Amino acid sequence: MLLVNAWAIQNDPQLWDEPDKFKPERFLGPEDERDRFKFFPFGAGRRRCPGEGLAVRVVPLATGSLIQCFDWERESEKMVDMSEGPGLSMPKARPLIAKYRPRPALMNLLSELQ
Ligand code: HEM
């Protein structure tokens, strides 16, 4: 069995400028020009994830809805601990605890969903 260390490639400072920084703009270029073996969250080749099309539509929709509908806060002033725990799917070492409340403009809409 061949196991590719995707984490090492996707965090390699020789491939990425400040790999540990949140810089979504690094992905703004046309998709065709991106190196498919430099960033591959859905794998590569014949066994690559068949759910990619669904995932790239549903994840932004779900995330956007949560941001649009609720105000979010950390539970304290401390920054979120992004340490990784053991496991293949890179779980957070400590769970994220956040506070949220519906945005006033959406109270009526959200109450109709029950
Ligand atoms: C953000 C969401 C997702 C991520 C990051 C992800 C990532 C991956 C990765 C890395 C693989 C292994 C690819 C390889 O071996 O090269 C995989 C395989 C697979 N994924 Fe996903 N996936 C996601 C969502 C989904 C969804 C929504 C579905 C189905 C509705 C799905 C179905 C599958 C299946 C069936 C395989 C096995 C393919 C095979 O072995 O031939 N995935 N996925």
From TrEMBL:
GO molecular function, one term: monooxygenase activity
The UniProt record lists the keyword DNA-binding: no
Keywords, sorted A to Z: Heme, Iron, Metal-binding, Monooxygenase, Oxidoreductase
UniProt entry tagged with the keyword Nucleotide-binding: no
InterPro entries: Cyt_P450 (IPR001128), Cyt_P450_CS (IPR017972), Cyt_P450_E_grp-I (IPR002401), Cyt_P450_sf (IPR036396), Plant_Cytochrome_P450_Monoox (IPR050651)
Cofactor: heme
Positions of heme binding: 49
The family this protein is said to belong to: Belongs to the cytochrome P450 family.
Name this polypeptide is given: Cytochrome P450
Source organism of this protein record: Rubroshorea leprosula
